[in-house]
Write a structure and sequence with these properties.
Shape: elongated
Order of helices and strands: EHHHEHEHEHEEEEHHEHEHEEHHEEHE
Structural class: alpha/beta
Oligomer: single chain
Strand content: 15-25%
CATH architecture of the largest domain: 3-Layer(aba) Sandwich
């Protein structure tokens, strides 16, 4: 069963603001002793005890045996592909999954509110890096203990959660609208792209990562900001990666400065006149992933699903044009391409500052109707 939340307001609510509002409304932090539905109880302890000494298929079968004694698994997510993955998981193991999906900030807000009210129903959390890291800071997550993180790229191994996929922010364009595609970020400031470019209004982590990259190459922050203001002056500010891909596919806009690679590749597969190559480097990469929730009511099912996502589920991501977190399945997707990974710790610690700086830069961009 998939539940869809009501459409969120157009303006982005920062993660820090979401947390502050939840704590003000709930009267404290979920990290306080006993705040969650299970207090200090670790629902995973007994399950892990039963798994001790088991490996491979024997471990999986024991997890499945334990999961069959539990109720329906509940997953909260912002991942648009999670519902399809849950169906595949159910087909393989017979374990039913309830999926609640909404925008990332809405899911985090719901988790915070339910945990504080001691009525959390979620067992597993799948979302963006910033929201996952914030949930861990707030004490909602239970670190994963198991073999499924072996073979994952370093960026996938985060504190309190595990990356299952890598989101790539790519410069992409409609080949019928843009005849001379950009070759660099500096090129995006060229006036030939004025009026055809769209810029994601929420992508401050993309801006933060590129700022750190260019500073490492010798630029000052002032020089970086000047570049981004000149790019913004060519651009219309548009919210949402899916919207960016749709606008490019229809030709309503010709070029996006940052849109998820898998959305563009999916449209290319349908025959849309889009491209993201030659690649404008560096590509910004952000790990997104999955986490066990500390107060899970169905811990064996949560562990089984998480380990499936990090093993068999990785193959499904290739078909969805996503970059799996397993190094052996990336099949050279990033070979020869210069990349920069979003610093998740920095994003959580300094996110409000970078968001404010990015919003100031976007004032040079046109607002979408």
């Amino acid at each position: 069963m998939v539940q869809f939340a009501a459409k969120a307001p157009a303006a982005r609510t920062g993660v820090a603001l979401v947390v502050a509002l939840c704590l003000a409304a709930c009267g404290g932090s979920p990290t306080q002793k006993g705040a969650g539905s299970g207090g200090d109880r670790d629902p995973y302890a007994a399950v892990l005890g039963r798994l001790k000494g088991l490996e491979g298929n024997a471990r999986t079968q024991k997890l499945l045996e334990l999961a069959r004694k539990e109720d329906k698994l509940s997953v909260y997510t912002s991942n648009t592909d999670l519902a399809d993955q849950a169906k595949k998981f159910t087909e393989k193991y017979g374990i039913q999954v309830s999926v609640y999906r909404a925008k990332a900030n809405q899911v985090l807000q719901r988790l915070l509110q339910e945990t504080k009210a001691r009525r959390s129903s979620a067992d597993l959390y799948d979302s963006n890096a910033e929201e996952l890291a914030t949930a861990n800071t707030e004490g909602l997550l239970r670190p994963y203990e198991g073999p499924a993180d072996d073979g994952l790229v370093p960026a996938a191994k985060q504190k309190g959660w595990v990356g299952s996929r890598l989101n790539m922010f790519t410069v992409s364009w409609n080949t019928r609208v843009v005849k001379q595609p950009p070759k660099s970020f500096e090129d995006l400031a060229d006036k030939r792209f004025a009026g055809v470019t769209i810029m994601e209004s929420r992508a401050f982590e993309w801006y933060m990562a590129l700022s750190q990259y260019f500073i490492g190459k010798g630029k000052t922050q002032a020089q970086v900001d000047d570049l981004f203001r000149r790019i913004a002056a060519n651009s219309t500010a548009v919210e949402g990666n899916t919207t960016h891909a749709q606008f490019l596919g229809s030709g309503e806009h010709g070029l996006s400065t940052s849109v998820y690679n898998h959305l563009v590749d999916q449209l290319i597969d349908t025959g849309a006149p889009l491209s993201r190559t030659p690649v404008v480097e560096p590509l910004v990469i952000r790990p997104n992933g999955v986490a066990l929730l500390r107060n899970a009511k169905n811990p064996a099912s949560a562990l089984l699903f998480m380990e499936w996502v990090l093993s068999d589920g990785q193959q499904l991501m290739i078909g969805e044009h996503r970059i799996p977190a397993r190094a052996d399945l990336q099949k050279g997707a990033l070979d020869g391409i210069e990349t920069v990974t979003v610093d998740i710790g920095k994003l959580v610690a300094e996110g409000e500052q970078w968001e404010a700086r990015y919003e100031d830069i976007l004032r040079s961009a046109r607002s979408a109707k």
